[in-house]
Amino acid sequence: MYSFDFARPTSVADAVAALGQEDAQALSGGQTLIPTLKQRLASPSVLVSLSAIADLKGVSAEGGTLSIGAGTTHATVAAEAGAYPALAELAGQIGDPAVRNRGTIGGSIANNDPSACYPAAALGSGATIVTNSREIAADDYFQGMFTTALEEGEIITAVRFPIPEKAAYIKFQQPASRFALVGVYVSKGAGGVRVAVTGASNDGVFRWSEAEAALAGDFSAGAVEGLAAPSGADMISDLHGSGDYRAHLVKVLTKRAVAKANG
């Protein structure tokens, strides 16, 4: 590592001010950033910890919407998001207990790792990402691998999930990292059917529109059976699995997620 200044503000306003310094970097749970610093792949002059901001923590449900503060850990979401069972179950599958007790939903969504679970939940639920200055629909927020609509110095303060009628997440995990080799999140609610896929595409999390169209008329695993799997050419190909293998998993896991959502 190397020397840097460390700030731990207690309000969002103070955090935004601290991030206005040259080469400042926000630090949430640190599950991605700290290893990055250790490998010297990032070298901020100031780390701005968000861990002391009470307003960024907590889970609440009201009027068919589940709101989660950006600083809320995965473990807390798993324990307290009972109003949205599929989301609570997803949070309980992230990493291991050490990761779940440090990592945060805001940090995960801000980082937008192409194999992370929360981006699939947000996109698959039609969530809204709330920042210190605006609200961003998930469809507009995720813009490619490790790329989001966040502007310099902008902080995620909360994520709001409309609670659907039915939802489920199925993850085929990479056993060492416990990231999704492929993960599929499906939901059916007032806004229609959504199918979001993580871990598979070179462009990061995406919606499988063909499956959504098929499921809109028949929300059953059989509706997916006749679909062609997405193109393997568009999928990640690495030592863990080829693009064609990941494309095959997208279809298989979508069917399983729909079956699970139907109980």
| C-alpha-based Rg, rounded | 18 Å
Number of domains: 3
What coarse outline follows from CA principal-axis ratios?
globular
- Helix count? 11
Beta strand count = 12
Q: Low-confidence parts, pLDDT < 50 over ≥5 residues?
A: none
Order of helices and strands: EHEHEEEHHHHHEEHEEEEEHHH
The proportion of strand residues reads 15-25%
Q: What is the CATH class of the largest domain?
A: Alpha Beta
Oligomer: single chain
CATH third-level topology of the largest domain: Uridine Diphospho-n-acetylenolpyruvylglucosamine Reductase, domain 3
CATH architecture of the largest domain: 2-Layer Sandwich
Summing up helix and strand content along with how strands pair, one would put the structural category as: alpha+beta
Task: Give the overall pLDDT as a whole number.
Answer: 95
Relative helix content:
25-40%
N→C terminal distance: 49 Å
Strand order of the largest sheet: 4-5-8-6-7
Query: What does the main sheet amount to?
Result: 5 strands, antiparallel
Protein name: Xanthine dehydrogenase family protein subunit M
Domain FAD-binding PCMH-type: 1-166
Organism: Sagittula salina
Keywords: FAD, Flavoprotein, Oxidoreductase
Structure in words:
With 263 residues, this protein is an alpha+beta fold. The chain folds into 3 domains: 5-49, 2-Layer Sandwich (Uridine Diphospho-n-acetylenolpyruvylglucosamine Reductase, domain 2); 56-162, 2-Layer Sandwich (Uridine Diphospho-n-acetylenolpyruvylglucosamine Reductase, domain 3), CATH 3.30.465; 166-261, CO dehydrogenase flavoprotein, C-terminal domain (Enolase-like, domain 1, 2-Layer Sandwich), CATH 3.30.390.50. 32% of the residues lie in helices and 23% in strands. The chain has 11 helices and 12 strands. It has a 5-stranded antiparallel β-sheet. A 4-stranded antiparallel β-sheet has the order 9-10-11-12, with helices on both faces. A 3-stranded parallel β-sheet has the order 1-3-2, with helices on one face.
